[in-house]
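Can't attach files on this board, so I'm pasting raw text. These are the components:
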Amino acid sequence: EDQVTQSPEALRLQEGESSSLNCSYTVSGLRGLFWYRQDPGKGPEFLFTLYSAGEEKEKERLKATLTKKESFLHITAPKPEDSATYLCAVQVASGGGADGLTFGKGTHLIIQP
Amino acid sequence: DAGVIQSPRHEVTEMGQEVTLRCKPISGHDYLFWYRQTMMRGLELLIYFNNNVPIDDSGMPEDRFSAKMPNASFSTLKIQPSEPRDSAVYFCASSPGTGEQPQHFGDGTRLSIL
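---
Top answer:
Structure tokens for the assembled complex are below.
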């Protein structure tokens, strides 16, 4: 069974204090790993897709990396507006019916001014 | 461009009633997904369609749940009869393809079954 585990469940940082969120996965064959941001009362908002070990992507203060077993979302010098729940999801490569995403439970990030 | 549109945003109803959730995907997207989010289980895939055809409904919890996509711009998720344990936020998402194409989510329907 495909599994996605995110840690920590919650993280409180001071503005400007950099940190990393972890997403470890166990899947039969990875087609892609996705990072989303979710604000209260909203749907998940797409951030990044990673496909192969060693790949990195950046957007503003966020940088996502991927290994064969886990992904990290690095947040550099965060601001209060970066406060949200960050979700990791995998898409599995298998024959047929493999297009849905399997999500982790997310990391609830709070950035204090 | 308009994103994925879901209605209603909130639904409160009594146990045993029929509930219908609606979704309009992004124009031109071939794939439509229904997910359910709860505190205990997080986001879970219920069913998805490709070109209006259901591809995988293995995530649909029971026969009380059904989904249809009569055309490329509309889908429904129906629960009949509803039960309190169906209370959750239901999300619809669409994508132009698989793999490298990300799924774009609506803002969900918050369903409360009393």
